Amino acid sequence: MKIVVIGGSGFIGSRLVRSLRGGGHEVVAASPKSGVNALTGEGLAQAMHGAQVVVDVSNSPTFEDAAVLHFFETSSRNLLAAESAAGVKHHVALSIVGTERNLGSGYFRGKMAQETLIKSSMTPFTILRATQFFEFISSLAGPRVNDEPVRLSPAMMQPVASSDVVVTLAAVVLADPINRIVDLAGPDKFRLADIVAKALAAKGDAREIIADEQAPYYGVLLNDQSLMPGPDAQIGRIGFAEWLSQPTSNTH
């Protein structure tokens, strides 16, 4: 099977490419570095020639509202048009749990625009929405500034290991399209402020974390439903405590 991974040199994409190649598939790791640019359309037709599946794990290089929307709308339109011309049978996209509940954020609006374009296209699809990755939990505290306290939302979340995201994505790629959204979350539930405190402590960062319901998350205020997966979500294998015990966890 020929599979094109858009964003194939990135954090998730590079590992997905290795996994699929390990299964004996022909995989194109498509990114601007390899001459394939979904935003401009460069190289798309050639990359997709003979492909059965296209996986979009690309991400906007900036979080500025207008730029994010432009990135996801333009790249998705270009991808879907090229897929239609090439006869691609399955479009797989990685998105975010809670997208429709957090549209006060420009980034989430961009992801919603991407999902809407996918669902309205003629290409059969599967959208995998994942919760926040363990690897990025500590970054939610922001940069360290004179050890000042950090205010974070106490909203519930159910983050997931990126390795479980890769495993689940690979399974989705090799399955038939289902033309709907699937949620993926980790096995454990946390208060956002609490898990960030645990992640910082594991790095030796002793900053005080203050739970504040008015603290924004990517520009939006959260409640206990904002970031939580649906009742039929797939659940990853690796818990946060297990992930923290791994030698590589504190390198992120």
Molecular structure report:
- The protein has 252 residues and is of the alpha/beta class.
- It is built from 7 helices and 11 strands.
- The longest helix is centred in the N-terminal third of the chain and has 22 residues, at 65-86.
- The radius of gyration is 18 Å and the shape is globular.
- The protein starts with a strand and ends in a 7-residue tail after the last helix.
Mean pLDDT: 95
CATH architecture: 3-Layer(aba) Sandwich
Poorly predicted regions: none
Shape: globular
- The spatial strand order of the largest sheet comes to 2-1-3-4-5-8-11
Q: Structural class from helices and strands?
A: alpha/beta
The CA-CA distance between the termini, in Å, is 33 Å
Task: Give the proportion of residues in helices.
Answer: 25-40%
- Tell me the series of helices and strands, N- to C-terminal: EHEHEHEHEEEHEEHEEH
Our count of helices gives 7
Output the CATH homologous superfamily: NAD(P)-binding Rossmann-like Domain
CATH class membership? Alpha Beta
Reported by name, the CATH topology is Rossmann fold
What does the largest sheet look like? 7 strands, parallel
Number of domains: 1
Radius of gyration: 18 Å
Number of DSSP strand runs: 11
- Percent of residues in beta strands? 15-25%
